[in-house]
Amino acid sequence: MNKIKNILQSIRIEEYLLLIFSIFLFFFYFVLNPQLIWWTFFKNGFENIALGARYFLLSFIFIFFYILFKIYLYLIKSMSPFVEKKDSFKNTIFSLPRQFSNSWPKFKKFLVNVLFFIRPFLGVTVFFTLINSLLGLLAVHLQERLVDTLFAKMDESIFGFYPFFALSNQDVLSGKIPYLFVYSFLGLGIAMGIAWIVFYASGQKAFFSRYIMATVSAVMISLPLWFCFPANSPQNAYLNNVYNKEIDISLSGITKNYSPGECIIDFHKESGVEQGKTAPISTMPSMHVAWAIIIIYYFFKFKKRTVFLTLPWFFFSTFGTFYLAQHYFIDILVALPVAFISIWLAGILIKLEKKYYSLNRMDIQESKFKSQIRKDLAKIPQAIKTIMRIKDPKGQSSQSSSSSSAAPTGYKSGDL
User: Fold this and answer.
1) Residues 416, 335: contact at Cβ < 8 Å?
2) CA torsion, points 307, 309, 315, 318, in degrees to nearest 10?
3) Cα separation of 232 and 327, whole Å?
4) Distances (CA, A) of 123 to 36, 216, 236, 297, 409
5) Is 325 left (phi over 0), alpha (psi -120 to 50) or beta?
6) Residue 331 burial (C-beta neighbours within 10 Å; 0-12, 13-18, 19+)
7) 391 φ, ψ to 5°?
8) Integer distance in angstroms from the first to the last C-alpha of the chain?
9) CA 153 to CA 330: how far, in whole Å?
């Protein structure tokens, strides 16, 4: 009994939350699709893994290159006797097998540490796989009761015109300015990956846990709204007219006269859905905006100076949501309370964790691993200098003679 209790007390609050959300999503999926064919479900699930993982793709890339960097450091350390001519070439070569065999325990420990880094991805990957599967199913079930025109009319009542058409015409913003909105809009996945890496490696577990919980909570809070008010993006609803529906007369003329710049035309070619296919209904509220708010909030709490970088990105990205015809302005307004409620809920849950969670041996090992990551990252500039070191024609370093004689520094570490 004590063993079970210890296991329950070692499960983190975000893992409990992801488990509960995933069970609910699976149950909801089953209710909507009682004739569920398991093989099809798992087949579609594997296809949706990529859709969910794209939001944290940078984190996977970081893991890959971090492993390569660790291998590089190990090889440099192993070959240093030969490079520094402290030993003969023959002795160095014959000693390598012994060095590699002695380092197996360290390598095994490193693999365990990498599993610590991958552990948070498991629950998040399952969650995003299920939410993408469910949203795909909802897009099929709800395509006959879309409320695109309602949201377009609400935008018109706010501005007196349709912002997703009027602002993106090429005579409004020209030159390189549109690219700023495009790249900021597309940069959400990069920002989410950077936030994941920074909050995880920081050693402050609360930041990372809150970030994960706020991100997934925003999706779950939005799910009932997507179900009750399904809508396609303006691009899918009007420009592509995916379902070939009759467009409101006040919008049809504007659509025909829509004349965006080359930047937006190129963007629309890569985004959106073709006629006859199923378009996402997760428009209102905008996760693009909600997640961006969550990112800048936690970065601000982590390091206040980051606001000078994250806040401009947030404004450009948010403007890009309707400038690029991916969202209605009303989607942005509703995303604001969704983000704030998610952040508040994450704060409540992290306090709940303190009441039951028991620090364990794995936490201590993971803490050491995070400390090692920070040390390794601090070595990257020196590693680059070593690789790029330039010799003068006489074979001496470009540094002063006194410094060049010193030994080189060693190395020790569905769309939402």
Assistant:
1) no
2) -100
3) 8
4) 23, 11, 31, 23, 41
5) left
6) buried
7) -95, 145
8) 42
9) 10
Return the structure tokens found at 193: 């990956």
∠ CA(214), CA(67), CA(11), 5° rounding? 35
Tokens representing residue 337 in the block? 């309370």
CB distance 339 to 195 below 8 Å? no
Asked if residue 285 lies in contact with residue 339, where contact means CB atoms within 8 angstroms, the answer is no
Instruction: Write b or e for each residue in 310-322: b if 16 or more Cβ atoms lie within 10 A of its Cβ, otherwise e.
Output: beebbebbbbbbb
Q: What is the pLDDT of residues 221-252, one digit of tens each?
A: 999 999 999 998 888 888 888 888 877 777 77
Q: Which two tokens stand for residue 52?
A: 């969910």
Structure token digits, residue 354: 């303190």
Q: Are 279 and 232 in contact (CB under 8 A)?
A: yes
- CA–chain centroid gap for 244, Å, is 34
> Measured between alpha carbons, how far is 350 from 353 in angstroms, rounded to an integer?
5
Q: Are 134 and 28 in contact (CB under 8 A)?
A: yes
Model confidence pLDDT, tens digit, residues 139-192:
888 888 888 888 888 888 888 888 877 776 655 566 677 888 888 888 888 888
Placement of tokens 């209790």 in the chain: 5
